[in-house]
Design a protein that fits this description.
Alpha-Beta Plaits, 3 domains, alpha/beta, six-stranded parallel sheet, nine-stranded mixed sheet, binds NADP nicotinamide-adenine-dinucleotide phosphate, Rossmann fold
Length: 426
Amino acid sequence: MSAFVSNLKVAILGFGTVGSSVARILCDLKPEGIELTHIYNRKIARKRTDWVPSTVQLTEDFETVLNSDANVLLELVGGLDPAGSWVRRALAAGKSVVTANKKLIAFHGIELEKLARSKNAHLRYGAAVAGGIPVIPGLQQGLAGDQVTRIEGILNGTCNFILSKMEEGAEFADVLKEAQANGYAEADPTEDVDGFDARAKLVILSRLALRADIDPNEIPCRSIREVSAVDFAYARELGCTIRQIARAELRPQSVNGSDVLASVGPMLVPKASPLAWSRGTENTVLVGGRYGGDVVFSGHGAGGHPTAVAVVSDVIGIAHGSRAVDLPSKKTAIGGEFLLRHSIRFIVCDQPGIIAGIALALAEQGINIHAIFQKPGYSQDRLPFVVTVEPCAASALHRALDRIGKMTCLLEKPFDLQMLEPEDKV
Ligand SMILES: NC(=O)c1ccc[n+]([C@@H]2O[C@H](COP(=O)([O-])OP(=O)(O)OC[C@H]3O[C@@H](n4cnc5c(N)ncnc54)[C@H](OP(=O)(O)O)[C@@H]3O)[C@@H](O)[C@H]2O)c1
C-alpha cells in the first residue's frame, strides 16, 4: 500500500440505482485502502445481492451501520429526510460522508460542511451536480484560481432528453411518456420539468463558483411544459435550439445589495453554443472566468455507473488524505433580471391590425421589435408567427404580453423565450 493511503471501511446507505453501481465498482476495482463493509437499505432482502461478497454485511438497521467501525458513509438514498438526519448523525459521530444528494447539499450544505469541519471529518458531494462529470472538483480545484463570473448549464438530463427529442419534431406530452417508459423521468416529473432539480444544482455551483450562498427558493424557475414543436421550427429560423438552462452570473456592480442574477428555464440557445450540442440525457456546464475565459464540462450527467464514478472518486480522494478546497461563500440575495433578447410566439386567427396592436403594446413598455417571422404552410385560422425583440427585462415584456393577451385574435397565450446571450445583461 502506498504510504499516503489510509484504510477506509465504507458503508453504502441506499442500494438503488447509484448505490448498487457504487458497490459494483468497489467490488470490481478494489481501490487501494478501501473496503466495503456494509450495505444498508430498507427491506434489503428484496434486493439482488448474490454478487456482493459475503464479507459485506447487509442490513436494514441504520443503527448497525452507525455503531459499526465503518468510517465513511456513502449516502445514496436521496431526499431531505431521513437522509439528512443520517448524514448529521454520521458526521456528529466523526464519520466522513460522501453523498450524491443535491437537494440536501443545496438546502443544508453549509451547515453540514461546518459540522464536518468541527469533527475533522470529510463531506464530499462530487456526484451531486452533473453525475459523472467532474464539475464540482473542477470548480473546487481546477478553477479555484480564477474569479468565475458566470455559470450556464444543462443540469437536468430528463429535460435535455425531452427537448432534444422535441427538436426532431415530437410534442412534449408524447416525449414525456417515452421518457417515463425508459426510466428517464419520474411518474411525477415536476422536479425535473418545472426546474427544481436544476435549481438545486445551480445553488451548489453558485456557492462553489461565484462564492454566493443563494436561497434556492429565490431563483425564478420556469417550466418546459409550455414549449411546443412549433417553437423548435421557429428556433431553427433563428439559428437556435431550445434547452433548459440554469444560469447564474455576478453583476459587475452590486445593485440594491444584490450581486447575482440567476434563473432556470427554457431558453433559445444558438446552435454554435456548446450548450446546444448536448443530446439525450447528457449534461453540459459552461463556466466563464475573469482570467481563464470559458471552460466547458460535458458528458453523462446521470445514470448509475457515471454517478457512481464520481462517488468512488470522492472516496478515493478521502483515502489519499486530500481535503476538499474550502471556498468561503457569502449569503447573497438574487436581484434584478437578465436583460436579454426574447422571441415571442403568437397563435392567432388572422385579421388586419394584429402586428400594429402588438407593436403598440411593446412600445408602451419601451421594447423595440427586432424581427417578425411567419413560416408558410399554416392555416389562416390558426396561424403561428414569432416576433423577436431587442434586449429587455422579462417583467416589462410580460406587462406588454398581458395587454396583448386581451386581443380577440389570439387563440393561445403568447409564449416567450429568452435568448442566451451572456454579453447582454443589466
Ligand atoms: N440516478 C441518477 O442518475 C443520479 C444522478 C445523480 C445523483 N443522484 C442522486 O443519488 C441519490 C440516489 O439516487 P438513485 O437514483 O440511486 O435512487 P434510487 O434508485 O431510488 O435508490 C435509493 C435507494 O434508497 C432506498 N431508500 C429510500 N428511502 C429509504 C429509507 N427511508 N430507508 C431505507 N432505504 C431507503 C431505496 O429503497 P427502495 O428500493 O425500497 O425504494 C433505494 O434502494 C439521490 O440523492 C439522487 O438525487 C442520482
